Amino acid sequence: xxxxxxxxxxxxxxxxxxxxxxxxxxxPWILSSLYSGSVCIWDYxxxxxxxxxxxxxxxxxxxxFVSRKQWVVAGADDMFIRVYxxxxxxxxxxxxxxxxxxxxxxxxxTTKIWSLGSPDPNFTLDGHQKGxxxxxxxxxxxxxxLITGSDDSTAKVWDYQTKSCVQTLEGHTHNISxxxxxxxxxxxxxxSEDGTVRIWHSTTYRLENTLNYGLERVWAVxxxxxxxxxxxxxxxGTIMIKMGREVPVASMDTSGKIIWAKHNEIQTVNIKxxxxxxxxxxxxxxxxxxxELGSCDLYPQSLKHNPNGxxxxxxxxxxxIIYTALAWRNRSFGSALEFVWSSEGxxxxxxxxxxxxxxxxxFQEKKSIRPTFSAERIFGGVLLAMCSSDFICFYDWVDCRLxxxxxxxxxxxxxxxxxxxxxxxxxxxFYILKYNRDVVASYLEGGKPVDEEGxxxxxxxxxxxNERVRTGIWVGDCFIYNNSSWRLNYCVGGEVTTxxxxxRPMYLLGYLANQSRVYLIDKEFNVIGYTLLLSLIEYKTLVxxxxxxxxxxxxxxxxxxxxxxxxxxxxxxxxxxxxLEIATDADYKFDLAVQLGKxxxxxxxxxxxxxxxxxxxxxxxxxxxxxxxxxEECLHQAKDLSGLLLLYSSLGDAEGIKKLASLSKGHGKNNxxxxxxxxxxxxxxxxxxLIDSNRIPEAALMARSYLPSKVSEIVAIWRxxxxxxxxxxxxxxxxxxxxPNLFDDWQVALTVEKSVASQRGLYPPxxxxxxxxxxxxxxxxxxxxxxxxxxxxxxxxxxxxxxxPDQEVLEENEMENMDEVVPVGADEHEEGEEQxxxxxxxxASA
Length: 846
Description:
Layout: E1 7-14, E2 18-23, E3 29-34, E4 38-43, E5 48-54, E6 60-66, E7 71-76, E8 81-83, E9 92-95, E10 98-105, E11 110-115, E12 123-126, E13 132-137, E14 145-150, E15 154-159, E16 164-170, E17 176-181, E18 187-192, E19 197-201, E20 207-211, E21 218-223, E22 229-234, E23 237-243, E24 250-252, E25 257-262, E26 265-270, E27 291-295, E28 302-305, E29 311-316, E30 319-324, E31 330-335, E32 338-341, E33 347-352, E34 355-359, E35 365-369, E36 377-379, E37 384-387, E38 392-395, E39 402-406, E40 412-415, E41 421-425, E42 430-435, H1 437-445, E43 459-465, E44 469-475, E45 478-483, E46 487-492, E47 495-501, E48 506-512, E49 517-522, E50 527-531, H2 534-545, H3 548-554, H4 563-572, H5 576-582, H6 586-596, H7 599-609, H8 612-624, H9 628-638, H10 641-651, H11 654-666, H12 670-679, H13 683-692, H14 696-706, H15 711-722, H16 727-731, H17 746-756, H18 769-773, H19 780-793, H20 807-819, H21 829-834
Antiparallel strand pairs: 1-23, 2-3, 3-4, 4-5, 6-7, 7-8, 9-10, 10-11, 11-12, 13-14, 14-15, 15-16, 17-18, 18-19, 19-20, 21-22, 22-23, 24-25, 25-26, 26-27, 28-29, 29-30, 30-31, 32-33, 33-34, 34-35, 36-37, 37-38, 38-39, 40-41, 41-42, 42-43, 44-45, 45-46, 46-47, 48-49, 49-50
Helix pairs in contact: 2-3, 4-5, 5-6, 6-7, 7-8, 8-9, 9-10, 10-11, 11-12, 12-13, 13-14, 14-15, 19-20
């Protein structure tokens, strides 16, 4: 049966004729030497050229990487070998099992085997009808073979111990220019000038596949040990392909016994053999003793234990063989493209896209199905699933009745042990569904007809997660998986938690509940374990089911270090009260207390943490909830002077504003200090603060508006300071005492200042706000001038003896006009408006 390897093109690049290619062992690089005399390095991940070397004007026949030296060694037709700091080359191939011997291919139709210590060949292999272009050794340990490619359009496999030809591969129609044994897969690759690459089975020598990418003649084939990637060099470019899957063929049963396949050899290890004295570290390779279990008659492409672990099935080459897990004895075999186990130990095989067979536990055929669609894949578990390109159908194992059709592109399927949950993985996301077996049973027992869509309520979509699943397993109701970014995650109730970041590609084997560890395997068959507490999974599962009483019983068995993880899970479920009780991290607990509005709990945490940000957050919350005393304390602790200004001004707390003014000066917050002094009517202190802050021009302008008597003093200071920078500008400053004509209403402003000086220390009660609000549209100077006009035009009372106005009336008018304006007002309308705000009774004006 054919191998049926899936082949995907990973890289394509057009260029001059390619004479040789090579893959770097650690970097994602392809090296190709060209007929034009150049050597190019391509990055197949970035799909871009890394570097190019102009080697010669003649063709470069071979180029190779020397990774340990970071070299490229190139050999050209000008008879020179050049080292460019990256590669190695040649038509000579060394024996990987004996590095003192090598084989050379020649156009004299022979292949010679040489030793490094002798100038003469050990022997000659003669069998081709034309010149030999290429040679390669078999890298496996069981056969002393090498392969040659010739201009006679054939490739020959030789046994270099018996010096005989084992097999001749025929099929190419032109010269064969490249041959190789794949180091990982049981295949031989040949490339020819007919433009094709042919893939042959290395055991049966059967032609498996023919590749033709339309880039003219093939000149070189390259590979990298430990990888499924291959690179092909053509006349017009380079192609990289990936053959098969890189997931190691391995399986672990519920007791910790692992069986894996390396080529046709079957090996086993047991995790329980790791001694109790060995300290297992997360992410470290386990020191396991490998035991040879036997060999397999076919090349394994998949290997899987049955549910109870007694049997192991190996599938590959279009066939399957069932072995006993302990003695590795053959129990059953047959032809199949795919093989799956049921949850009860029965199994199904897919013979073709139109024929599925079901077998019982005694390996006897029980039923045969011919689906009405093309079944491209099948999956086992509680139900038998068959999928096409864009949908999946579930059938019961007993009568093969359709349970449900779901329109989704399926990459893999994972059933929970309980049979109630299933994860369907697609290329970009995965879905967790609940299987309602009771609904299905009652529907089928009722004798109702099942249409092409199946039972409508058979499945219920619980969660959708936008992550690609590489491999996955279920532990209870917890789905463990690694994603495309190689992070090890688990999902409970739709909440995804990242356990570890993997440093290389790894694949899930299983979970051992008695060790609370999940085990993975890498491509080199190293087994690695990570801790995942079973009690933590059980707790989250019970919370999801709503059984909080049992969940709280399990909680003490969870280590304290995991409590924050539990609290985050509870928060995601909306259980903030429970999360607050469990959380141990102070920052997280504070956030929960703030969300719940538990200010006393948050305050206790803030006192312990002494974090200004926490105090500020708590102060804002206390202010919004009306707890002003706590808000004041929190703002003091947070040193939030702006917040205190807002609080005191809103409360009309004059004493508080006085203290805040001193506090702000001490902390250098002059803007807050200025506002405090201004609200208190301490204009002299405001001006002095501006002078101390080197804001002398602003101090002069403020004095002009509010304290005209101080202007001359400040102008002198301003002149003295400005003369150090610009003497001419300093001389141009006008002093109102010297030039009163330049300042409008200067004498009136001085008079008003004296009149209202006694009013600046008084703070009217908040109850008088409406009276002041209606009189806030004029300044003191305007009010004083209006009062003078009234005095000039008011008629004289005939009863007055000296023709003077009634002093009581004047005083009454003056006091009424005084009430209309702010005690610190002057020339400008804005200042008058600014001072019109009012406070609570007995408190300072804000």
